[in-house]
Amino acid sequence: MLDALVIAPHPDDAELGMGGTIPAMLGRGLRVGVLDLTDGEPTPRGSPEIRAHETAAATAALGLPWRHNLGLPNRRLRATLRARAAVAGVIRQVRPRWLFAPHWVDAHPDHVAATKLTEAARFWAKLTKSDLPGEPWHPERIYYYSCVHLRSVRRPAFVVDISATVDVKRRSLACYSSQFPADAPRPTVLERVAAADAWWGSVINAMHGEPFWSREPIGLRGFADLT
User: Fold this and answer.
1) Alpha helices (H) along 64-157
2) Which among 31, 78, 171, 180 counts the fewest CB atoms within 10 Å?
3) For residues 45 and 3, what is the distance between their CA atoms, to the nearest angstrom?
4) Is 13 exposed, middle or buried (CB count within 10 Å of its CB: 0-12, 13-18, 19+)?
């Protein structure tokens, strides 16, 4: 059903790390979905209703055909067996070729838990003779995106040129006004994201870029898409 499933700890994490890559993939005819694990609340200016409205607007801005919220507890996200079964069930339902999860090193416990949960659920999704819904399915790869709460730079496996879609990313992030208020101290989160996008773009001789990591070697059949 999907080529790529982006698993996000909170609404806005997929946009922060992949808000340019997602529309770039969609523009190439790939089917992309986002699974938000929690509603992200409580936050100082948000509420479940506000976040749901903001997420719907961001989903429309990205042009996503599929998005779902699993309803796991924010601030207390854990890679429990119950949560693993829930994520594995979604994987078996949408049958993605690739999974995307947050980078495994982070100061935010929810982000670390989300990545552990994704990796475990990928394995469980392929099991036969289980009580999980749907048929067994094993995504080919997990790639890791940047939505980290650490100001550190790690060498990525690759960087995606998002020069053509960076405005889509900015529009999607602007939908989360409760999380990224205009009166926040400068540099704001969105200013820092824009600076990082420009820096990663410069690394690959492009205007804007988003970095990705892989725990496994990446195979190539050709070099046509390398920049």
Assistant:
1) 81-94, 109-124
2) 78
3) 35
4) buried
CB within 8 Å of 184: residues ≥ 6 apart: none
Distances (CA, A) of 187 to 1, 54, 195: 40, 22, 10
Query: pLDDT by residue (tens digit) across 107-156?
Result: 999 999 999 999 999 999 999 999 999 999 999 999 999 988 887 778 99
- Domain residue ranges in the chain: 4-213
d(CA 183, CA 111): 26
Strand 209-213 versus strand 158-161 pairing type = antiparallel
Contact assessment for residue 41 and residue 52, using Cβ atoms and an 8 Å cutoff: no
Give all strands of the β-sheet with 141-145 in edge-to-edge order: 66-72, 32-38, 4-8, 98-102, 141-145, 209-213, 158-161
- pTM score: 0.96
